[in-house]
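Morning, I've got a small favour to ask if you have a moment. I've dropped the whole record in just underneath, so have a look.
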Amino acid sequence: MFELDRTFLEGLGVDDMPEAEMKAFLEHLQEEMEVRVGERMSEGMTEAQIEEFEKIIDGEGEDGDMSDSAAWLEKNCPQYKSIVQDVMAELKEEIRAGKDRI
């Protein structure tokens, strides 16, 4: 879908930072994406669905295989791809707007 890496930052014109800062910034962006997407997805879910999804994610975190969570999302939150795209577009715009401070 998208990759948060140097190329992503180059596309936004904010890739002229030291490698350590870039790594930290990319980690921050990944965390921010996860929080924002999670918040939006949870708005349309029941508490039971949220708990079920968290259990799936917790189980997948160790081996990196996200196939169970992807299948669960397709069934229980079919708009998740749209949510991810919307959040990514918003985040890109925020980065562009704050480019001078980064």
Remarks:
- The CA atoms of residues 12 and 96 lie 6 Å apart.
- The helical segments are 6-12, 19-42, 47-60, 67-76, 80-97.
- DSSP finds five helices and no strands in the chain.
- The longest helix spans residues 19-42.
